[in-house]
Amino acid sequence: MTNELSKRQEAEVEAGREPGQPLERYVFTPPIDIFETEDGLVLRADLPGVSVETLDLQVEDNKLTLFGRVKPEAPEGARLLHQEYAVGDYFRSFILSDDVDHERITAKLTNGVLEVFLPKAAKPEPRRIQVKSE
Amino acid sequence: MPVFRWGHYWNALHDIEREVDRLLQSVNLTFQTFRMGRQYPPINLYELEDEYLLTAELPGVTLENLELTVAGGVLTLKGKRNELEAIPEERFRRQERPQGAWQRSLTLPERVNEDELTAEFTNGVLKVHLPKAPEARARHIPVVEGEG
Predict the structure, then answer these.
(1) Which of B30, B52, B97 sits opposite A26 (nearest CB)?
(2) Which of A70, A74, A123, B102: disulfide with B46, CB 3.0–4.6 Å?
(3) Which chain B residue is nearest to residue A45, measuring alpha carbons?
(4) What interface predicted TM-score (ipTM) does this complex get?
(5) Cβ contact B77:B39 at 8 Å
């Protein structure tokens, strides 16, 4: 019995899973809106079931990555009678242009919707280059 | 005066997304299928020992914009997605999220105690608890010997 159990755990670890985690795990691409405002771009993503604690939003180099974890919605032992959507995590990533001021990116999460504000970087002033004659 | 080409860089964004989408395609089939013209909102129904649990994904809906009614064994969910500001169409670079008002009616499982329905709404997920009526649980029926 103990042997069987540890064998199963080994198999799970081999498959890249933590022991005890459910075998089925979905990762979804969440639907998004992107629109332009005076000051930059606003990105909204539907992430139902994700809370501030389970959301990971990262800017690394020029890449914006969102990863939201979703906990099972029903208690253990519940029998699924009818299913129209699967429960899983959310992942999507974007390349940011230099036009975005990476330092001033802000985000908020309300009722399962993530809103990321990507402010326009200040344009450098045009600079006249002196040409000297020799 | 320089022309500020705000937005054209987002083409680069398409490319990486396609890449990621392709990687995820194998696990994404369920979601894609439901997005192809199924009813809104999508719901799941679970059975527990003494209740049924109905869940619905409603991101962007606020409590004020959500209405639940129950009558004659039919539960009606009604609401609209939060549109705080009207954003002109031409400002959109991309629009994938469903918008607007929606309504859906569901026939409740048999023998649900309609008077004791409770609902909670957390992080864009609605949960409706439908307690089973006492008669839905197995009942022992005594058999007595008939006369004659």
Answers:
(1) B30
(2) A74
(3) B97
(4) 0.74
(5) no
